[in-house]
Batch of 2 targets.
Target 1
Amino acid sequence: MNERDLLIFEQEPIPEHIVKKMEECKKKGMIVPSPELIKRPSQIEKIKASAKINTGVLDAVEKAIHVGMTTQEIDDIVSSYTKEHGAICAPYQYEGFPKSVCTSINDEVCHGIPARLRKLHDGDIVNVDVSTILDGYYSDASRMFMIGNVSDERRRLVMETKKCLEVGIKAARPWGTVGDIGDAISKYAKSKGYSVVKELGGHGVGLEFHEDPFIAHVGKKGKGMVLVPGMIFTIEPMINAGRAGVVIDPYNNWTISTVDGKDSAQFEHTLLVTEDGIEILTY
Ligand code: MF3
Ligand code: CO
């Protein structure tokens, strides 16, 4: 935690009625977030500004993406747009990640690494996962793109994965729990004949890239950490056409793919819990 945020925590305390409600939840045996997971007004403003650039990056990619483009060209767009807007690409050198964005194609689930030799082919589906730092504040979102003529099967996977994110967002509410989200997503995905990746999930975000809580996309209603107004986290379901299992690329130690080689899709938003609902920051 840096000095600036420590000062903000002192100067902008958690509102009294929220502290009270958290204490009640704790008494009932529920898991409540630690105070630094509850963002204060000035931090929320900064994270919103970061998220605005993040959305701009994804819009720029959406405009430019086409058959025959390389994933390195996507990386170039992401890094130049981000820099032009005074921000930093969070993935770059994050735990040694070599590029500025993740590009995950077809059976790649996440953490695909952009490369000069990797072209987008007609019929591919690709996830572009953008994470932005502005003035030290983080935002994180991803979208799927369908390249050229995509099969009905792939199109359905992409559409239903988007629906999974929407269903997860609808299930999230102030004073609900993290488990409500995974419960809703896993039930919806299963009803469509898909499986949900369990090893990776959403996460608190804002002051750091990855904060608590871990947002599993499977779970039980009413279980897990309470969602308190001021919390900011991602929902980012990874939905597989086949089995849920995943493997990590043994050569680059980053890229996660489906174990059965079938397709996977993902959408992600950064969300703020408010007193009366959920606000999507990465629209
Ligand atoms: N954006 C991914 C997430 O949602 C993180 C990628 S980390 C990276 O958590 F460094 F590999 F980019
Ligand atoms: Co994320």
Note: Residues 140, 203, 234, 236, 268 surround cobalt (II) ion (ligand 2) (CB under 6 Å).
Target 2
Amino acid sequence: MTRVLSCIQPTGDVHLGNFLGALRPWVEGQHEKDAFHGIVDLHALTITEQPDVVGQATLRLGAVLFAVGLDPDVATVFVQSHVTEHSQLGWIMECQVSFGELSRMTQFKDKASKREHEFISAGLFTYPALQAADILLYDTDEVPVGEDQRQHVEITRDIAIRFNHRFGDTFVLPKAVMPKAGARVMDLQDPSSKMSKSAGSDTGLISLMEDPADIMKKFKRAVTDSETEVRYDREAKPGVSNLLEILSACTGEAPQDLATRYTQYGPLKTDTGEAVVELLRPIQARYNELMADRGELQALLRKGAGKAREVAAATLERAQAHLGLLPA
Ligand code: AMP
Ligand code: TRP
């Protein structure tokens, strides 16, 4: 069975865009492939000096992943730092990648330039080596990623090829694949930008755990345009089309078909808000249950870490043996 790995950083709260664009496709895909899902807390450490915040965010993200429907008996959901092989292989990867290669990573250049006057950790620079370890530890065939992460999968392939060439066949070569298509959710106040936690204000963002009354308020205030016609046209009518697309993601009907049912913006906003509230209601209920029973939630994450470690430990051992490190 094809093995697929997707990882998500525990930074900030999950929003509707993350859910419809990424997490829901993960849930739909969990039976088709051997799916591993890592909450990559060590990656989040590269830009925070508050490890406790990362820990809390990790727990909440774990609850979200199970609440949206990842089944611990089907998919392997684990926390990166619980599987110590990541750090161990990460160092080995750092020694297989050059300073020059890491210097060419556009994500590093972007993130470092945004933090010009702040602390730029060495971890932010060597981040792709840790990501290579994440991927290679699981003999991963496919890594579904968007454009921004392709370069990191490419460098992982380069490292794997180099290692295999230097030390003998050790790693499966991974391939970046297009993620299962999910919806692309735009900011409700600025429908030309993706809904994102890095937006200036959160009036255009729906958090997955947001209160129903607040969700309704945000949809009622969603920016549309100065016309009155309800029509699906992403270019000319980004606000209206975003509402139609969100409603479509909730109901399964095509946005073009939904558009024919409305003659005014008001009812479209209300219906979309209500559909989102209903879509999130069971997820919020399961999330609250999981968060109320921390022991059970941590047991689920331990189970995932156990399954992950079985694969990761064998790969690390193989890499160490091929490198010729003295066995303990
Ligand atoms: P991020 O939190 O931006 O790293 O995103 C985590 C995952 O959610 C990635 O797979 C993104 O492609 C996806 N995602 C983030 N924002 C959106 C959005 N507004 N619409 C659809 N998918 C999104
Ligand atoms: N770098 C990825 C991001 O910023 C997160 C990530 C870490 C990842 N390790 C991974 C993604 C392994 C896929 C596979 O979104």
Note: The mean pLDDT is 95.
